[in-house]
Amino acid sequence: MEEKDENKGSRRNFLKLGLGVGVTSILAATSASLLTSNKAFAGNSEKIKVLTQDGKLVEVNKADLVPADQIVSREDSHKGLPNRKFAMVIDLGKCKNARKCIEACQEGHQLPKEQEWMRVFLMQDTEKTAPYWFPRPCFHCDNPLCVSVCPVGATYKRSDGIVLVDNERCIGCKFCMTACPFSARQFHWKEPTTYTVPEEKYSPETNMPGREGTVGKCVFCPDKLRKGELPRCASACPMGVIYFGDIIEDTVTNGDETIRFSELIKNRAGYRQFEELGTEPSVYYLPPVDRQFPLERGLDGLDEQQIKKYDNVPYIKNLKETKDGI
Amino acid sequence: MEYDSSKLMREFAPQIEKTSKSWYLVFATLLAFFLFGIFGLYTQITKGHVVTGMRDNVVWGVYIVNFIFFMGMSYAGALISGILYLFKSSWRGPVIRMAELITIISLFIGPVFILFCIGRLDRLYYLILFPRIQSPITWDVIAISTDLIGCIIFLYLSFIEDFAKLRDYKELQLPKWRKRLYKYLALGYQETPWQYKIISHTKNIMAAMVIAIAIIVYSVLAWIFGVTLQPGWHSTIFGPYFVIAAVYSGTGMLIVVMWIFRKVYKLEEYITEKHFVNVGVLLLILAAFFGYFTFSDYLTKWYGSIKMDKVLIDKLFTSEYYYMFIASNYLGVLVPIIVVGIKKFRTITNITIAGLITVVSLWFNRYLIVVPTLETPYFPIQDVRSEWLSYSVTWVEMSLILAGISVFCMLFMLASKFVPIISISEMEKHTGETRGLMRD
Amino acid sequence: MIRMKKKKTNHILNIFKTVFIALMILLFVPEIFIHAQDGADSVSAKAEKISPNLKLLTTKNSDETRSLIAVFSYKDSETKQSFDIKDVTITFFVGTDSLINLGTATTDEKGKAICSIKSNFDFPKNEEGFIHFTAEFKGNDVLEDASGEVDVKDLSISLTLEEIDSVRTVSVKVEQILANNVRVPLNEVDMQIFVGRMFSHLPIGTISLAEGIGTLEFPVNLPGDTAGNVIVIAKFEEHEEFGTVLKSDTIAWGIKTMHFNAYSPRSLWTQVAPVWMIVTLSIMLLGVWGHYIYVIIQLILLKKGEKKIA
Known about the structure:
- By secondary structure, chain A is of the alpha+beta class.
- Chain A contains ten helices and 13 strands.
- Chain A has a domain at about 75-285: Alpha-Beta Plaits, CATH 3.30.70.20.
- Helix content of chain B is about 75%, strand content about 0%.
- The interface between A and B is large, with 49 and 45 residues.
């Protein structure tokens, strides 16, 4: 029996290895299949539409495209994707704290288990109001205080709205962390050990590998966006809570459903958290109405310690008190 | 009282010439503390900032508190000596040198504490290489370096006359290089009218500069907090509040320093109760101002309480911060006012105790500004790691605080071996001024 | 639940019992079987093999080429976790009786292998007009054999974009192409019209096809690129009869968008500071340092005066 389990483990490892980093693209797949007797293939002539630097749609040969896995250099990461302005819409009515967004983010950015760029708070504004799960990425504000206060320009905002941190430039003064009212930034208090990405492959777009004494945060996954894919959290969410898109083309999608951003915000009374602070976030929220799941579902599968972190939330306090009472 | 140069030199030469055993003993003890701090720093650099009590919410801890604290004390000299000098207060003579020394010494120590807070010291030069002038830290770098240089010039100006006196005092029992150094530093000052004119003219300029810059430095420091949106920090009153708090703590420190040197170097003849009372009155005025600023800051936050301000104030008044709050913001204000305000209590010892209470409570005042705010972010702190929830000082931070204090004392001790702790030229001038007054 | 039923009838309970026993047998027998094998000396590699899933999808692209997409994955029966498997070679075939080899492709990190087929390729069709595609994977040491298949009818979509009486109109004509090139218009089927977006296609409306024809009014307020271009797409997505079929065309019907100078080059958060800030700082620094320099010059003069007196 033991032996069997061991075999299973190694088998799983094999599969995981197969999933690891590698540059086998669709491109390679098509060219490999050219060797065919009856010449059924159209070869590499597959055309796709891309947006040029001046914001025009053009058709190019797929084969002419640079592989998307190429690392974006520190200088190039300062330029945003042309004619794009990204925004996220989070539907609080659908979130049940499945934590899949957090896990996908941690896996994608090789973060340690306790470091969460994406957070899910249990919010309850007052004792009388209803509690709700609140996913919080970096808000990528349009008036980013964190960027304003940076003394060395290590954090910057790009034309597509994304705020990044260059941890080769960061001096670790932590001023951005106190300037951010949303606790979105995190410091590497010790040399991180979870990174397998080599140092020379560092790009602010992924912020990997993290360096001791510098700041990291949610990056909106520009590496994915360059490939036309959704950020990791958005594509990982099983509930389709997280919509992401370009508000220049007025469209957001959660992978299943594609909607016009303006209509979604209008029809569902979308708002921005802490609007009064004036940082102009790029993350919008849809109020937690018509819940798809009872709140308690979010507590399923959490251990005692994890539930303990919500102790200050009135709802949890009540829950524990009634439990103790019985 | 009348003083002439040769009498004063005879009086103060031993302080420079001879070094007692107890001096060495104290110095060695302080050095031990300093080395312990170096060990703490080494630990922090090798193991990372994880050895401090700081975490993702409370990203700034006692290092920043100490930074503000020492920077605040540096104000003592800047403002007190500057103002006393500009307004030609008749009693400034014996205290002005000490005030200037406090300034320069704490101005050296203060910025070092902000360095402890920086994650990557190896990239510190990026501050100059890639500056962004929108950042208050850049303002701080510019302002502090400007202030430091201004204070050094001002201090040097006030030393020139004394260096000349030390150079001319033939009986001085010192090694040759020391005498040569004095000669070099005296710049050939012979007290000729045109030389005297240059010195007093430049001193006037620098006194004014130092006052102005010190106000800017301390405001900039306040703006590091004020420009953020954090509850408790985002306050327009912070600039002037920090300036007043700084002068206040500096004045308290001046009283303590006066008392120590008076005891150690037997300066009872020069530093009299009158000086203590005069500086004490200054302390009283500042205490009132400081109390007023503190009150109006917290009153406006409490009265029309925005949610986060209310959470913060509740925290200050209900948690373990309550006693710290009472101690720093009530005792720290009321004790100096009562001690100096009521004639009966106005003794040297009492005033010194009041000064000491001021210094300590101002340190806690800064702690209460920095830490509870960072423990009260807009989003609730929901973390499985318990040490992430609140801040507590670790031994590394403790060691560096102690090192800071011991360096402060050590530099004072060294300075007192280099120049007379009381400015001889100022004492003489003071005599001249009173003579002139008597003639009129 | 069970208890409730027990109260009502014992009959249902009996059925449950039988089913339960049957389930247990089903669950344990293979386990016993495996144990028996383990016991029987050599640990057979075959017993340890993974049986992967091979899903085959087909898309008829706008340029009339056809893509066969094989998705190769494996679901762990215990953890219910699904893994995509990359670097696996898949062979594609078409036909029912005599298979025509279409070629091979290797899966990428998402477990996808794509085979593109020329637009003029003549696929064999059965009498109903269905084309039968198969994808095959010949097993290796770790993976068992797997195959996937899909039957689709060939569909032709023609998309016309024109302004009719100053109304921007999307017109489609959809026909099935059955065996021997018989074209039959599609009737009483809804077809969605999209515009191409960065991550996905944004639906702008549905056309109900009548005799294979239908029209849709294009919305007036839709953003396009800087020149106002949008890609209009008529599409069936994973239709049970046709697979994915799409036709697209680009037209300047969108609103021109311009986002380049959306941000001021000088603000608090840009790299370059606002002018007032630079001016203020310069004035202050010049004022202070000017005085410093003046004082230092005075001291140098003092020092020079030394020689005169000597």
